[in-house]
Each structure stands twice: as structure tokens, then as C-alpha cells.
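Hi L.,

As promised, 1,4-dihydroxy-2-naphthoate octaprenyltransferase:
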Amino acid sequence: MTDWIKAARLRTLPLSLSGIIMGAFIAKWRLYGEGGIWDWRIFALALLVTLLYQVLSNYANDYGDGVKGTDAKRVTEAEARAVASGKITAKQMKNAVIILSILSFVATVGLLYVAFIPNYMNEFYIFIGLGVASILAAIGYTIGKKPYGYMGLGDVFVFIFFGLVSVCGSYFLFTKSFSWDMLLPGTAIGMMSMAVLNLNNMRDIESDKLSGKNSLALRLGFKNAMIYEMILLQLPLILMLMFLAVNGFFQTQNYYVFIVMILMLPLMKIRRQIMAVKNPRELDPFLKQVGIMTFMMAVLTALGLNFFH
């Protein structure tokens, strides 16, 4: 069981929850202002679905990199994976991926049933499609003849599913509407998620070169990937500030909504520390740190809008 828990890579879970928290609590704030009802059941089920997607993605990644020999090139304990190390067989991990895919789909249907049935049938079918796409995206990163993670497209998929789909989709589940300003927090969470993936790929840049995994970081080169990382870590708070400005908070006396901007200080420190790294393998601790910053961005936004407002 310990090996399965380790393979689930629990440190990635806060990152996956960030988009749901951001979208759900912006929806709560907006519904409260309009006299609407915020359904806690949708929130609970959305968290469950997201956790299942993330663990599915981690298991699929472990399996895909394991059978392709990519993980065999990794040399540090932090980079070690279950299939490559032999702690879990490829067949066992493949079965786990299949089971989690089924569980993820069942949980998705349950979530959408609560959110849309019986009054929003068209939306129900559209989101079923999004759910299936999310499951396929989780699997397709490293599995298959042409896994998109090996073609340098991982950043695009992470931006779409961890950012736009997660934030805007969860917002829609509650409000049954789309608002263009939601693209700002959706992009912010998406870029922070890309920052974590890029750090991961920068850490593995040497082993990926040996195994033929052409991540975006490998394509850019370590130096340019570092510049890309700084951009990804710089823009999200600016986007959140734009979101607050668009919604008129600069004209109010409620300054608590700006509590999210306190993250400017720890993010500045993290950026300086990342820039000082010369050995790619020394980047590993920052994956967790940036993931926590993403989670805190969502939590502080939720607090500022709903509890201090």
C-alpha cells in the first residue's frame, strides 16, 4: 500500500484542487450577490472528481514512463517511480489506470447529475464530453504511440485542463453561466500549473534527453526554460489583480479581497532561489513550493471574496 500511495504523488494533489476552489468560491461570491444558491454537494463531488483525475494522471504517467524506459534514466530518489523501480509491476499499474478511469467517469457522471439534472440536459451532455476529454488527457500524457508529453505539448494541456477547464468549468457548475472575466483567474491557475510542470521537466532535462522525451523545457534549453519559468511565476498575481479591478474592488473600501497579493513576497523569494539553481536536479523541492503557492492563491481569493467581504 505504501508504494501505491507514493505512486499517487500526494504532493501534486493541492495543485489539482486549486482550480476547483478558485472557480467554486468565485461562483459562491457571485451567487451570494445575486441571491442565488451555492450547492455544497457540487463542491464536494468536484473535489472528489479532481482528486481521481490527478491520481489517474500520476499512475498513467508512472506506467507510461516506466514501460517506455524513460524512468530508467532517472537517477535521484526524488525522480524514482514505482514501475521503473519494480515496486509495482507494469501490469498492476495498467490495471490501476483502467480501474481509476472507470471510477473517474462514474464520479463525473454523479457530479454532473447533481449539477445539471433535470433542468440542464444540454449542459449535462457537454460536460460529459469534457469529463471524457479530461480522462483521456490524464492518460495520454505518457501512454500511447504518440503521447503528447513526449512532443512538448504537456504545457498546453496543463494550461487548458488545470487552468481554464478547472476554474471556468467549476464556476459553470454552480452558476450555469460563463463570464469572460473568469478567464483571468483561469489563466492565473493555468500558468502556475504550467510553472510546476516546467520545473519538473527542467529537473528531468538530462534524463529526458537520453530517453527521447522532448518536453518543452528540453526544446527550449535550460536557460530559456528558466526565463519561461520566471514569466509563468510573475504573471498570475497580475492577472488576479486585473480580475479584482474588473469587478470594481478598487472603488470600494473593502481591502480584504486583496489578501491574495500577500503571495507576492514568497513568490519573489521562490523566483530568486530558482534562478540561482545551476544543477537541474536541485529544482525538485520547488515543485512542492510552487504547488502550495497555487493552492494558497485559490484559498486566499476564496477567503477575500466570501469571508472577509
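Residues 2-306 form one domain.

Thanks again for sending the construct details.

K.
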